[in-house]
Task: structure prediction
Amino acid sequence: MILLVDLCYEKDSLSQCEFVHPIFDTLKRSGFSGEIRHFSELKRREWERYDRIILCGTALKDNYFAERIDLFSWMIECRKPILGICAGMQVISAVFAGQIVPQPAIGLETISIIRESALLGEPREIDGYHLHNFGVTLPEGFLLLAGKPGKVKAFCHPTRPIYGIVFHPEVRNRGIIERFAGLPS
Amino acid sequence: MKLGILFSGGKDSVYACRRAMEKNEVACLITLISENLDSYMFHTPNIRHSKLQAEALGIPQLVWHTSGEKEAELADLEAAIFAAKNRFGLQGIVTGAIESVYQAARVQRICRAQDLWCFNPLWQINQVDYLRQLVSEGFRTIISGVFAYPFDESWLGAELTEERIRILEGLQKKYKINPSGEGGELETFVLDGPIFKKRLNVLSSSKTYANFRGFFTIDKLQLEDK
Result:
């Protein structure tokens, strides 16, 4: 069972259809089951019930989650694979002492994958859909998978299966979601 | 949150409106009427009848005219959104975008510039499932335009039914068409549905069709009590 964390401004918001359901549907069509929970209702050790966790994105104007990073401290001790998408990547960065920085992007952009990983595969260029006002700095020790130091497009934890991607894989890159769902836990 | 719906009268904007009404207050419909029949952004067949649809839905409508030239119509869209924001005190905009990154990104940019929320409740939805949902929830949708092979004249004015959806599903597999018509293959017009306070009845219509391109033009339409 995969936990999909809804990072939108309120539980069951209109944004959920846009940022959570497409990921849920992608998983379902690939034979994986998921459960959606809003970030405000997750308890400290609840992650133990799931095989892996996806932190979904939010609307462009929705940065409420960034005011409640304290609610994500469970991530420090969580040993399950985690994928942070856009807002989710910002959460991972903030939890691991990186920074959320202004860096607006809207629409399709080319992404340079510079390091091979289980999530993104080998170095190459892909197009990805971006929708964010903020990007991140690379948390200390994290590995840059795509982009460049001033414009991080994807990163991973050096020793744990924790990934962040700034673009939205539910648009034109659903294979990334399927690959994450199939990573060894 | 007070929202404005980018409204063409086609199924996607009507269903986006339904989703928005379930969660928020829909304060107005925003309709751009393009003089360009091949408009990049805005649905054209029968759009003048969207006024009657707004009446049937019981939602105020802001109508804005655009010449429909590629970049000018974006400026017109922004002007329409700005006017609606001021007139109705909008906090956000809702679109019926499903797959079109072109359409979605442009509206997102306008909303960002206007400090408005942007919602796309049909974004990336499975199109065949969505069409079935529309029918099962009681929306009555007719095909008001066809613009691609292999759609023949029989599609014009036809109601979206399970039988038509099965054909669209087959065409998706065979020709990779978008079953919802978002790639410009089809245009639709909604006559009734659970959010309609009154239903619409087509009294007279005409068809033009040649080379897999045709319009079902509604000449006379009336509101009926439900």
